[in-house]
Task: structure prediction
Amino acid sequence: MSISSLIQLLQQAYSGEAAKRYVAEIARHHRIQASPGYRAAAEWVAAALRANGVDAVIERYPATETDRFWALPSFQEWDCRTATLDWLRGDGAERLCDYRATAVSIIQRSMAADGEYEVVDVGDGRPADYANLDVAGKLVLSRAPVRQTYVAAVAERGAAGILFDHIDATAPGRSRVDLPDARQYASFWWQPGMAKAWGFVLTPRQGDALRAALAAGETVRLRAHVDAGFGDGSMEAVVATLPGAGPETILATAHLCHPQGFANDNASGAACLLEVATTLQRLIAEGALPPLQRTLTFLWVPEMTGTFAWLASHEDRLPAIVAGINLDMVGERQETTGSVLVIERPPEAAASFAPDLLERLRDELVHEQKAMGGAFDYALFRYTTTPFSGGSDHMVTSDPAVGIPTPMIIQWPDRFYHTTADTLDHVDPRSLQRAGVLTAGYLAWLAQAGADQARWLGWEMVARYERRLAQEVQDATTPLLDAGAAERDLGWRRLLDLVAFRRERLGAALATLERLAPLSAEPAAWRDDADSTTNKVIARSQDQLAHVGALPETLAPPAQPVPDGELVPQRLYRGPIMDLASPLPPIPLSAPDAAAWEQLYRDVPGWMGVRAYAEYWADGRRTLAEIARLVELETGRAQGPALAAYFRLLEKGGVMRLAPPLP
Result:
């Protein structure tokens, strides 16, 4: 079946309206990781799969303070029954928060509390904001991140609890002014030995009212009640299977967690994947799709933690998993959320055929509107492809130490992300259908792909490489035309370095086609064609720049020296290091080393992503200097000294060994 025919079949079979009904069902549950609400959502998904003829089971993993999944520590189950917050004014009380009405009105994983407390405003939570303030035994009203407020107010100054009233400006049209009555999702992430705390989430309007009263000299007192507790329990993963004839598997994931009412994040991804599984099952049963040659495995998990738990529990299955796909926030109504349909590629260290296949399938979806003359058509939605960024479950599976190259489908940005404004009316059945057809097409194609499909995909990958490279080199060449000699020389050498990196990564990606079928003459033909185009692109750039001066022929020198650059990092763990209680280290470190760990977050913009790239490149053979250079080529950011410090901290934490290079 051709790609066009496959997409047309799936467009007829996949129902965006059915997927939206699934979103509504999932969003009813308060789906906090390792909680009764999450468990109820998992049971509903499993029952819905079975009702549609899909084999599904629920696997359970320990939620305790002693278990680990590779390098990721588990955590205790949390159960909140009631929580209220009242503003005591005169003889009456104004209710500010009620967990039963709005589950996000409490900071998730709060401990039990009961009493009346005076409120102190600490503004943005900077050290200067605490000057001359006595917060001991009081509630602090703060716009700072919860973790920061916990350390500064509760742990260091003895505050009783936290009031959080901020909206992070992560997208256009998203601020305290834009969403005055929304509450932003906030959570504690407790590690063993940490003294637990509690707190509430206010709307910006409520927070401003408290601040105005305080500014007017009023003593603000609140009555708080939290009935919640912790204990050893479990976290669940729903695992569904469409069996194939051979031993290989394709993996599809969507995280099921997040607060009650949250629709796009990520009830939309979970619901979309549910409709994908049932649609493929139905088409196979009807004979519209042939029997699968590779098994399709579907996972609904707590974000990150559940993926770690499932992978660590099934290490024997990992070598047979050919590729993956991750769905996160795929249902956005673009007109209201301001989002774009994004295909996020895996990291370059996990170069693979997977993202190019997904892009090619996406290109089949854009034929939505005919031009007036009828000669061509175009999309009625926004879409793009981006390099790897992380932040979802594909960050775990795409780690080369795990070995499952996993592109992600997501809608981003979203002005309602992680707030109570993420509601069902911002979910679009058309978006769900596009994401579902794209996912189902990717899975169905890979489940059947053999030698003919692998040969075609190889040429598709070369063609896409050539188009991307030509534009990237031209974009880099243009500013060099007006640059000074020294800047032009360095820019040219960096361009040569980048082109060599892109060409090498294409070769690594093409090699993964052997996972689909044995190949003979094609790899040499692909390489020759790519080399020819690469040389033409470089020659074209060189010709343009030759008019303004001679060019060096060497590659660019390292941007900065790398301490211990000759040492070879050897990872003693699988999966990236995930500090859920960011920026607390999830590995045992001394107090000074833990402080150094947190300092990296303050010193290096986007540190969580930067360090993940470095871990991915650490294959036990590359030196630290080589890893730093690859991170710079992939991200454009030179962070050699920070990466050296990070790997030293991993070594101290017992999950890394820095060894001399092999002779």
User: Anything to note?
Assistant: The longest helix spans residues 451-480. The chain has a mean pLDDT of 96.
